[in-house]
Amino acid sequence: MRRNKVLNVVLVLFCILPCFANKSIVFNGHWNADIKSLNPQLPIQAWLEDNNKDLLLKFSRNIGMIYVTVTNSMGEKVYGQSVDIKSTSSVVISVEKFEQGDLLSITDGNNMVYGYIFNN
Fold this sequence. Notes:
With 120 residues, the protein is mainly beta. 12% of the residues lie in helices and 38% in strands. The strands form two sheets. The protein has a five-stranded antiparallel β-sheet, with no helix packed on it. Strands 1-3-4-7 form a four-stranded antiparallel β-sheet, with no helix packed on it. The longest helix has 15 residues, at 2-16. The radius of gyration is 18 Å and the shape is globular.
């Protein structure tokens, strides 16, 4: 009986967890780290929330002042914001006005990464 309850809980979790999965944005480009690490991951991660209305940028370490830009498929800037990563570890951006093919880019003047917000 106890085994059946545990099995049922596991099955329910397998059904529920994918419902809350956020779509990760894959970045191209490079970000040189000042510190040496065995884990060469970018200090920036981005997810499109399930509601397709919010973009979450998460920073794993202090990378100083950055500039976040979104350009449309015509090359026009539709969003721009400076963010001081010393004072925050995450940023939420509303993407309601963005469209398929819009490009997210993040730079600090020396390093730059970019990825598509809606890449079906």
